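thread: overnight batch results

M.L. [08:02]
morning all. the overnight job finished for the chain we discussed friday. pasting input first so we're all looking at the same thing
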Amino acid sequence: MGQIRFLTFLLGLFFTAGAAATGFRGFEWGTTEDEILEEMGEPLQRRGDCLIYQDRIIERQVRVLYCLDDGNALYRGAYVFQDTHPMPYNKHVEDYEQLLPMLSERHGEATRNEVIWRLPALRINKPYWGHRIASRDLELRATWAPPATQVEMVLQGGDFNKITHYIEYKSLESMEQRRQQDRELL
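M.L. [08:03]
and the structure it wrote out:
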């Protein structure tokens, strides 16, 4: 029963609160900070160019980031999962694998789905992947390309054996503008 409730909730999340065809959580790319604040209220915190809120999805705590460019327009959004799981951290891998088909159903087939080993000699069986991810030896990464948006899910290690799991939505137009600005600097 819990599994059915979990899947129903997750499908509802991605079909209603996930990325719109051209934005994030119902906000179009280019939405201003004032418009986000009017709809979402005051954020939990502000860090750099991002407004950070807390929410629950798939029965997990997440930070929801709305990131604004220099023109004060939404160009990126993300879900950063806050849950920690005990060693050997395989529950993180299970969470990632559970989201893959749901994101594919929402955004089409992944354009990239990678298992990246930093040291190929350390390749081990899947039951130990969580520990290898925490040690920064392994990273899981998948990318989708719905209209006007790039969606990327990443599971990677961090400092002190911390695992980071996030789903990031980026405006393709904004990404191209940033690449152009970078080229002009060279």
